[in-house]
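Take a look at the protein record below and flag anything odd:
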Amino acid sequence: MRRAPGHPVWSALFVLLALIPLSCVSGPATRPGTSLKPVSGALSEAQSSALRIEALLANGSPSAIQEAQALAQSSTALAKDEAASYAWVAYELARLVYPELVGTSSSAGTPPDSLLVKAFIDARNGRLSGAVHAGPLYEMLPVLGVFRLKTPAVNSAALSAAERFSAYGITSALVQLAVGMALERSGDRAGPLAAFGQSMASASDCYPAALAKAKLLGDTGMAAEALTILSALPALVKETAAYRRAYAMALYSAGRWTEAMPLITAVLMDDPLDSRFMLIRAHLLMENKEYRQASPLLDAYAGVDPNDRLYLLLRARLSMEHNKDRGAALSALRRALERYPKDVDTLVYAAELLWAGNASERSEAVVFAGTALSLKPANERALKVLLSADLASGDAKAAAARADAILAASPAFQDYSLLLRAYRQAGRLDDAAKMARSWLARDPVSEEANLAWLSLLIDRSEKSAASELVTRLLSGKGSSSYRSALYFQQSRLQTNDDAALASLRSALVENGMNLDALVATYDLYFKKGDLQRARFYLKQALTVAPDRPDLAMRRDALAQLGVAIP
């Protein structure tokens, strides 16, 4: 069935051809001395036309296929049936490999009855033709099965055919594209990147190779390179659904989520059942705290792959962040770690949730955070969990070293409270002061930051500055717990016990559960020998923190003096 070069189904390819350098549509290169078919004597015009058409089809780029069909349809040397076979195969080959440009709603019509057409149909359906045909075109055809089928047998047949085809020394964008697809399905990582790159080098209009290479780069953390490849594709390709999908995935992998979201929505409008993009959309909705919209997407994805790594992580986050169900969140994370024991994001999130638990869970959190850090040494969240563990254990030297590691890995780290505590416990007051200044610069009205700076001034014996600061802060407004803490710090500046007690009483009026104030008040009354008052405040302190060892020591001291606390 003949179609004129200007037929509507090829109009897209003609536009694309105009955008591609002419060098991309030249005949495929051959090794010196290699012919496409063994012939004796001079080639006839019909043989020359057939060889040219077959070479273009073997190259397999969009522009080469388009030229092959045009030659077949305009040839006066070829027999009518032979020309029709070439034209039919050219159109169906383009429809198979480049459906975005050709369209899939119609075919080239009834296939002519020829060996080439039969071999093409068999190859397209993953069947190897029983006949053995000489020449590169027939050796190329078995690779076509990968564009319809994903079975190991088809992949193996394609790779074998590509190996035989390579003996001709012919450049083929289509063969390298098929090789990349087959290798990717086999679990190979480096091979597909190389094959897709060779396909792109062979013909810059072989856009499926560019889309596939971009996907692989995005999956391996090279999203910037993926975006560069995609941005270079012609405008016509950028109008296709396949491009939108690839570009949306690259933006998502690059962390450019605001830009990715409209494209992800467009992909789902093209195909509402695209489960991967359904999951990605759920992820971005959760990043925006739109949990109610994300929840049904996760429920739908559960029927696709309930053991997917990202699904389990998002399910854990939804349970914790929206439903406040820590148990369900940990259950999902444990399921994920059974299948993905070296996934850093899952390890870190599990460590963070477990650190908020009991002693046994905290021990497990340290193990998970340590594992995550061994896999990704600069992981800020893992370092933060381990720093919290160092502080809790009282290992001031280790805590300060961990704080140094956090700042080296992430200079913009902003949990100043944690860093300040580490440096302060280690006696590195200058470093602690640096953190306090940075904290105040970021949030001048932060009650916690102002308290930290006030406390450091006192620790550094800068009493005049501390006294001026506490007076100014107390003259302003603030929460009762904040004002209570200010009065406690004021008590540390007083020059006699009675003045200190007055400040501590004010602290406890603001917040009767202020543990620091309760302990300091006990100490002053114990020092004065007023054991009954001392007992009263220590009993209150034990109510707040019954497991603190220093309070147990104070209780024992009272008991030795005959004042017991039951």
Notes: Confidence is low (pLDDT under 50) at residues 1-40. The radius of gyration is 36 Å. DSSP finds 32 helices and no strands in the chain. The CA atoms of residues 46 and 77 lie 5 Å apart.
